[in-house]
Structures are given as C-alpha cells and as structure tokens.
Amino acid sequence: MNNFVWYNPTRIIFGKDTHKNVGEETVKYSRNILLHYGGKSIKATGVYETVTKSLREAGVHFTELGGVQPNPRLSMVYQGIELCRKENIDFILAVGGGSVIDSAKAIAAGVPYDGDVWDFYAKGVKPQKVLKTGVVLTIPAAGSESSDGSVITKEDTQDKCSCTTELMFPQFAILNPELCYTLPEHQIRAGGADILSHVMERYFVPNRNTDLSDRLCEGTMQALMENLPKVLEERQNYDAWAEVMWTGNVAHNGLLGKGREEDWASHGIEHELSGIYDIAHGAGLAIVFPAWMKYVYKEHPERFVQFAERVFGIGKEGKTEDETCLAAIEALEAFFHRIGLPTMLQDAGIGREHFELMAEKACRNGKLGSFKPLTKEDVKAIYETAW
Ligand code: NZQ
Ligand code: ZN
After folding, report:
1. DSSP-derived 3-state class of residue 134
2. Tell me, what's the pLDDT at 87?
3. Is the pTM higher than 0.85?
4. In which band, very low, low, confident or very high, does the pLDDT at 223 lie, cut at 50, 70 and 90?
5. What CA–CA distance (Å, rounded) separates 106 from 81?
6. Coil, strand, or helix at residue 237?
7. Residues linked to residue 13 through DSSP beta bridges, in sequence order
8. Which atom number of ligand 1 is nearest to the Cα of residue 45?
9. Which domains does the chain have, with CATH numbers?
10. Whose Cα sits closest to atom 43 in ligand 1?
11. 88, 139, 229, 235 — which has fewest CB within 10 A?
12. Ligand 1 atom nearest residue 40's Cα
C-alpha cells in the first residue's frame, strides 16, 4: 500500500427533508450569499421554493445567479465573479448537480484572485484563497459535492479543464434522495455511469497489496449496479435512491483511492468528447471506459480477472486469462446497455472528425493514466476502438 493523506472536510447531511434546513446550515458561514443554480429544474420541482424559504427564515440574504448549463461554461463563471465582488458576497450555495457545483467552485476561486480564473484550469496555477461553498445536491453523479475539484469548459476553444485543490471542498453537502425522483431517465443513466467510472478510475491501477480498498471498490460497484436499475424501474423508490446517492458520494469523496495510484485516463479522454460534443459526461464515459479496457487490459490482466470474479461472479474455469478479461468487459458493456446507454461513438451520433484534435488535447499535459500511461497515439487508438 502507498503512503497517503486522508482528508475530506465536507459535512454530509443525508436523508429525507434535509434540504429544508439549508438556511440553518448556511447561516453558520454567512448572511450574504450567492445562490447558484442551473436551468428550470429546481423551480419546476419546488426545490427552489423550499431552499429560498429556509434561507429567508434563517436571515440569510441571497443574490441569485441561475442558468448554469451542463458542462458549465467559463462565461458564467466570470459573471458570477463580478456579481460576488459587486455584492460583497463571501459564500456560494450551489443547488443542483456537478455543473452547478463546479461553476460555484470556480466563482469561489475567482473572486479573491487578481488574475484570470482560467489560470487555475489551463495553466496549473493553484488558488491561494477560495470562498466557502455549500451544496444542495439534486443529482447523484459527479461527486463534486464533496470532491476537491471543478471542471469548466471555455466556450471559444472548447477546452474542458479541471482544477483541484483542498480549498475547493464544500463546507457541507445536503443529500436528500427524494430530490432525485424528478430526474430525467437520461440523466439517471449518465449519472450511474459516472459513479461507476469514479470507482473504476481508482480500481484499475497497477498496485498490489490494496485489499481493503479493492473490496471497498468492488462493494461500491456492486451496490450501484444493483440499485440503479431499481430507480429506473420505480422512480420513487426511496431506499434504492438512498443507495445510489450515497454510492455516488463514496465513489468520489477520495476514500476509495487511498493507498493506491489512481488512473483517470478515461476521464481525460471523455472530457474532450463532452467539451466538443456537449454530451452528458457519464454517457461519454460509458463509451470511453469499455474501449479503454479493451486497449489496456493486457498490461495487468490479473486486475481484470479479479474484477470478473468479484464484481460479476465470472469464474475462470474453462477460460483462458484473456477470455476471462474480455468476459468482464462484455459484462460491463451489458450493464451499460441494460440501463440504456450506448457503448460506441457511432451509436451516440459522434463521428471520427476530431479524433486527432481530441487526442492531442487530452495529452496536453503529457501521458494519461497509470495503468498504462497513454500517449496521444494510444488515445487516438482508443477513440478508434470506441467508434
Ligand atoms: O439545469 P437544470 O434545469 O437544473 O437541469 C439539470 C441538468 O440539465 C438536470 N437536473 C439536475 N437535478 C435534477 C435535474 N432535473 C430534474 N430533477 C432534478 N433533481 O440534470 C442535468 C445535468 O446536470 P449536471 O449538473 O450537468 O449533471 P452532473 O451532476 O452529471 O454534472 C456533470 C458535470 O460534472 C463534471 C462533469 O465533467 C460535468 O461537467 N464533473 C465534475 C467532477 C468534480 N467536480 O469532482 C468530477 C466528475 O468526474 C465530472 O467530471
Ligand atoms: Zn466523472
């Protein structure tokens, strides 16, 4: 096991009705906040009304900035920074999913910074000060509610880049599984694929002697694969949603990667897809991950054999090592198909026209991943495998 530091300061407030107390939680940090949200969903579902009522009752003054789009844009971040400075705001409450939370984190980093906030995303500059944030989560997927990262797209260049710093952990995240009942089917599927991918990015690594985190990863993947189909079938199944929502958090709060490398090549390869084609990040991962697996499994086949046996119950008997690995990849693809996600680019309406450019951008900071460090040529070959 590798040396590690485990730190995650985000307070998780989980369960029925919990978002009704967001005012009480927020006022611990500020009485003058930015309320940040996405499109129409929070107003249509009543979440907006509940949250604003609770803020008013707690004596929290809020300035609103809605309209965050999925794959959040830099222009909205600039708008938020300006607004916060004008109104002397020192806390941002994000009500929504990964896109709203990531936009909130970017604004929070940009407000105290004299330069261009994009420096944190494109130039590797590390923020020295970041405003505090809180979250009411409405979709289990990205795990941004208690992650140290934020992913933003710069519209004019279609660059989708990330910034990570411990200063970006939200102070609290309210997770009420009931808020998931209104999610569109496509977002549920994509969210599920993203959750699973966050575990797989940590599971498929070259390390040995990682028994505990292997088992935690395997159990988390199984819980997700068991419960996601249940919520697709029965939209108001609280218990199944609770499992999915908690799984989404555990998958990306950092714990599962402790003591081991992490990979993140598939995320890097996917971010270029959603940066250019504006598809849901999780839907992109359902295409990229199986292709990545087919391309790299021979580097450490024992990982895939363990994945086959422990996650899918595929025995080794009567099969070569190669056949067992491929059976596991097929089982993963079958899960994605079962929940209604395509696993090939063509089936998502994406052509081959940008493979070269996307591969180049994905490797803008050097090789990708640790399972098999990938060059630009490897990444291009993975896009071809997915086509
Ligand atoms: O905009 P509104 O109207 O609110 O609709 C949203 C949006 O269209 C809708 N939605 C959310 N909750 C709903 C709802 N509709 C009905 N009922 C509800 N309860 O869902 C749509 C998608 O929302 P979005 O926030 O984009 O989804 P997600 O949470 O999947 O976030 C994706 C973004 O997170 C980034 C991705 O790259 C992508 O940009 N990621 C962030 C990470 C991080 N910061 O740690 C890690 C991830 O790997 C990921 O890269
Ligand atoms: Zn993700």
Report:
1. strand
2. 98
3. yes
4. very high
5. 9
6. coil
7. 174
8. 17
9. 11-179 (3.40.50.1970), 185-386 (1.20.1090.10)
10. 144
11. 88
12. 3
